[in-house]
Amino acid sequence: MQIKSPTSRVRTAFGAVAAFGVLALAACSSESPTPAESSGAPEPATSDSAMTEPMEMTDITVGVIPILDVAPLYLGVQEGFFEDEGLNVTLELAEGGAAIVPGVVSGQFQFGFSNVTSLILATANDLGLQSVAAGVSTTGDVENDFGGVLVKADSGITGYADLAGKKVAVNTLNNINASTVSKAVKDAGGDPSTIEFVELAFPDIVPAVLSGDVDAGQVVEPFLTAGLGQELTNLGSNFALTDPNLMVAEYFTSTAYAGESPEVVAAFAAAMQESLTYANENPDAVRAVLGTYTSMDEATMAAVILPKWNSEIDANTVDLLAELAVGDGYLDEIPDVSVLK
């Protein structure tokens, strides 16, 4: 499986075009016996399947982040779910959702993956996006989820309320990670307005916590497992504390592309639903596919906590995160988020 890096411009399509056979029929000369004059054997019937034209394939590019969350997409390509829907898929790696949203808007990508809060902010700014499929969801278990907040064991921080007044690293400012950390702090009795959020890439967060550059860091797998292996402590899942059914991310497209190619959007949605269901039911396959697009070693792939991959979009999550975006000051008012449900 080949994947485009953020700097690569070479497009490599996943999926193979199905081969088909052509039925060769011998031509009868004028001197050949007619069916009535022949041996009496019935004339061979022409097979409908043999004359069927091959499925016309549509090339699409999906902007993704090389993280655990998108494993169902890779599995779906590997298992042929997208090919079955007539889609040749190119997966293009991006640094984060902030790069994927403009890529979809500009038409560089036909589809993308991003956290729900970022999609809500883009919708509020009239960027013309709409959801296509669910992305990834919390397990609902505060102590056993794919995301959490790490602190040093001797930091004196024993719960979310203690994060008030502290430096907390998140991968992107004003996104779902900062918003859900703030809610967890508020619900624990702390004042989230006193937190200083620091933007760091996921791979840099654990080292920053260990060095003391920040007091805590919100991470997802495999960085959660990596941090726990270096004697950091997990305060618990900010996702599960916000809502045990929280949908963290979605796959989306532009409203312009959806209007131009509704059949392709429907095909992508169908393939994604099948991929999400398959991932939920086959955790061993998920762990195996991680080695095809991440740098995880076998021990890490075996140890990471897998999220839930629900096949249906959770509308309640969209409403909740829109409310939190207003409460956190990301937005002045709740926009029309019906396109994300």
Mean pLDDT: 87
In the CATH scheme, the class of the largest domain would be: Alpha Beta
Number of domains: 2
* Name given to the CATH homologous superfamily of the largest domain: Periplasmic binding protein-like II
Question: In terms of topology, how is this protein built?
Answer:
Elements: E1 58-64, H1 71-79, H2 81-84, E2 87-93, H3 97-106, E3 111-115, H4 116-124, E4 129-137, E5 147-152, E6 167-170, H5 176-187, E7 196-199, H6 202-211, E8 216-220, H7 223-228, E9 232-234, H8 238-242, E10 247-254, H9 255-260, H10 262-281, H11 283-293, H12 298-303, H13 315-327
Parallel strand pairs: 1-2, 1-3, 6-7, 6-8
Antiparallel strand pairs: 3-10, 4-10, 5-8, 5-9
Task: Give an overview of the whole structure.
It is a single chain. The chain is of the alpha/beta class and 341 residues long. The chain folds into 2 domains: 58-138 and 245-340, Periplasmic binding protein-like II (D-Maltodextrin-Binding Protein, domain 2, 3-Layer(aba) Sandwich); 147-242, D-Maltodextrin-Binding Protein, domain 2, CATH 3.40.190. Helices cover 35% and strands 17% of the residues. The chain has helices at residues 71-79, 81-84, 97-106, 116-124, 176-187, 202-211, 223-228, 238-242, 255-260, 262-281, 283-293, 298-303, 315-327; strands at 58-64, 87-93, 111-115, 129-137, 147-152, 167-170, 196-199, 216-220, 232-234, 247-254. A 5-stranded mixed sheet has the order 2-1-3-10-4, sandwiched between helices. It has a 5-stranded mixed sheet with strand order 7-6-8-5-9, with helices on both faces. Helix 1 (71-79) crosses helix 10 (262-281). The longest helix has 20 residues, at 262-281. The radius of gyration is 25 Å and the shape is globular. The protein starts with 57 loop residues before the first strand and ends in a 14-residue tail after the last helix. Mean pLDDT is 87; it is low at 6-50.
